[in-house]
Amino acid sequence: MTTEPGKSSAQQAQQMWEAGARSLGEGCQQAQTFWNTVARNWSEAAGAMLGQIPRTAPTTSSEALATWRELNEAAFSVGQAWMRLPLVLSSGAPPSELQAAITRLTEAQGRAYKLWMEAIVKMSEMAKPPSAPPS
Predict the structure, then answer these.
(1) For residue range 37-46, what is the model confidence (pLDDT) as tens digits?
(2) Three-state SS letters, 49-100
(3) Cβ(105)–Cβ(82) below 8 Å
(4) What's the pLDDT at 36?
(5) d(Cα 35, Cα 41) in Å, to the nearest integer?
(6) For the chain, how big is the Rg over CA atoms in Å?
(7) Rounded to two decimals, what is the model's pTM?
(8) Is the four-CA dihedral 42, 43, 44, 47 of positive or negative sign?
(9) Which of 35, 58, 74, 88 is the right S-S partner for 101, CB 3.0 to 4.6 Å?
(10) With contact defined as beta carbons under 8 Å apart, do 112 and 71 qualify?
(11) Domain contains 91
(12) In angstroms, rounded to a whole number, what is the distance separating the alpha carbons of residues 18 and 134?
């Protein structure tokens, strides 16, 4: 850390801490906005797709229920990871614990996004009318 003229290293450390806290807050807000948007979009897409399924269709399949369960678990994991990160930062945990918290968050978000995309693909395939067999 280089010292600026007229500022002590304690003042510079305080400024760095505040900049890091602001950056973390902005990152949390961006991630929350993203996942809120994902949830809204997923809800709207699911509602539209379910509205297109004929009412005479059989009840929800076990595969569909498993997919919903996976999506809920993934969303819950993301929420847990986001709650854990500020606790690790504010507790003064060692860098390895901070890295583990960031890794958990990254993996949880990646898994949730992947599952969400797979579910959208499955639902769009279900909504397509069956193609005519080749003659």
Answers:
(1) 776 776 676 6
(2) HHHHCCCCCCCCCHHHHHHHHHHHHHHHHHHHHHHHHHHHHHHCCCHHHHHH
(3) yes
(4) 72
(5) 10
(6) 23
(7) 0.52
(8) positive
(9) 88
(10) yes
(11) yes
(12) 66
